[in-house]
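Quick one: structure for this chain?
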Amino acid sequence: MIDAFHDMRLKLLAPLGRFAMPDGYWENPASTAERPACHLTFDDGPFPETTPRLLELLEREGIKATFFFMGRNVLKYPHLAAMVARAGHEIGNHTHNHLPLLAMPGRVFESELDRTSELIFDAAGVRTRVFRPPFGIIDRGKALAVAERDMRLVYFGAVAEDWNPIGAREVARRIMAQIRPGSLVVLHESKHFASQCLDSTATIIERARERGLFFDTIVP
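Got it. Here's what it folds into:
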């Protein structure tokens, strides 16, 4: 009964978000019946506890993903951002400090956005083309600021609330209860729950492939 409640609540998040949020990227438009492709995305990194091992896993599985990095973590671990770029994965902007955006003054948001993009470029030599708002919430004025910087606003699809220590098995179960062709899968890097991130990712890849699903990067 508890599982059913969680699954229903999480399945409603994306439809409600589409209704309330400014226009953005919610699913993979290239997904077809012949090639049902999803997106595998990771928020909040980079972290030495997760990023290198995720890269090893993704390389082993032949998957390209999208990493939404926080500027403050890129500042701490620029070599990890460089590793992600060299491996051919997409790097997105997730603001510098991961603060709620609705109450944030526009000029502060633009500073967070620009600083993070600059840090990513300095570390990895790539221009960020995608932006995911913290908590998946943004207003129209800030969405316009994203567009003015030639970045695509990216939201979420299959989520697990894995910023909490719910265990790798439960993370995978929640994602697999929601995933479908075109889904935008959201997972979170964490130095505190590193094994949860790594183990759930491996399980999700395995189970998604059993359903005939593929993964690719977000291309604006």
